[in-house]
Amino acid sequence: MQHEIRHQKLSKKTFIKRTLFIFIGAILMALGIEVFLVPNSIMDGGIVGISIILYSLTGTKLGIFIFVLNIPFFYLGYKQIGKTFAVSTLFGITVLSITTSSLHHVAAFTDDMLLATVFGGIVLGSGVGLVIRYGGALDGSEILAILLNKKFPFSVGEFIMVFNIFIFGWGGFVLGWDRAMYSILAYVIAFKTIDIVIDGFDESKSAWIISDKAQEIGDAVLARLGRGVTYLRGEGGYSGDDKKVIFCIVTRLEEAKLKSIVEEMDSSAFLAVADINEVRGGRFKKRDIH
Question: What is the pLDDT, as a whole number, of residue 1?
């Protein structure tokens, strides 16, 4: 008999933290749009990009377009990702819409196109990254791309790329091709900033080591790097021999020292190192080296 899997409610602390950071993220995005990009006729991609074009054509407040055009995606987000995501997204886009409307008449921070493009992309990307990191979204185009990905043989990234090519092309006719090119630059900067905010600066590395001297290597990593290790049991696919596998987490600065330890202890050892964006729990915290 299967047990019903119930949805776990967020703790009060988690709820407050998520709400606060989604609120801050939405305000940052609104600042990037209204005090850097829009006054200089620079667009973003996605639904916000379409909203900026429609604002330029009609003069209707940008916040209204952002909210109305994203309404269908609340339902899609609820069906495809879940209730918590949909509610977080609704909250974030509501704050974004209200803030952009409130900032509509605020003077631009700069009329230098390059500065507006760079800093607009950074501020906007920081806001979007915060919202995504804490479980929401500020643009429905990614939700649509996730849905289309399930029905057509193209990746989410490919759908977003095609969608934005169309938007920036349309923007070129409406705002001018120089503005469209600045818009693409702002979008690229925002995209990279989103990655940094979501993944963080302190990127760690996961290391997998297979060696006949696994115990000696593990002891050396613990003593010389101050990093805990986990031993796993494996079996060679070709030889069928039992293998002892070491798993550990190190920082980028410690990667070179880890490699030198492995080379020194067993030059024929198998070593695989990969990027890892977040580490929680366990006993991977660095110990003092004596």
Answer: 46
Q: For every residue of 64-112, which 3-state class applies, written as one string?
A: HHHHHHHHHHHHHHHHHCCHHHHHHHHHHHHHHHHHHHHCCCCCCCCCC
Other CB atoms within 10 Å distance of the CB of residue 230: 13
Low-confidence ranges of the chain (pLDDT < 70): 1-10, 80, 146, 149-150, 155-157, 199-203, 237-240, 277-290
Residue 172 CB contacts under 8 Å (≥ 6 apart), including other chains = 179, 180
The tally of CA atoms less than 13 A away on the side-chain side of residue 15 is 7
Q: What is the DSSP string of the chain?
A: -PPP-PPPPPPHHHHHHHHHHHHHHHHHHHHHIIIIIGGGT---SHHHHHHHHHHHHH---HHHHHHHHHHHHHHHHHHHT-HHHHHHHHHHHHHHHHHHHHTTTSPPS---HHHHHHHHHHHHHHHHHHHHHTT--S-THHHHHHHHHTTSSS-HHHHHHHHHHHHHHHHHHHH-HHHHHHHHHHHHHHHHHHHHHHH-SS-EEEEEEE-TTHHHHHHHHHHHH---EEEEEEE-TTT--EEEEEEEEEEHHHHHHHHHHHHHH-TT-EEEEEEES---STT-SPPPP-
pLDDT of residue 155: 66
Would you give the distance in Å from CA 61 to the centre of its chain? Answer: 28
Residue of 75, 21, 47 lying closest to 197 (CA atoms): 21
pTM for the model: 0.72
C-alpha dihedral sign at 189, 191, 196, 197: positive
Q: Which residues on neighbouring strands pair with residue 235, listed in sequence order?
A: 242
Whose tokens are 């060679």? That residue is: 236
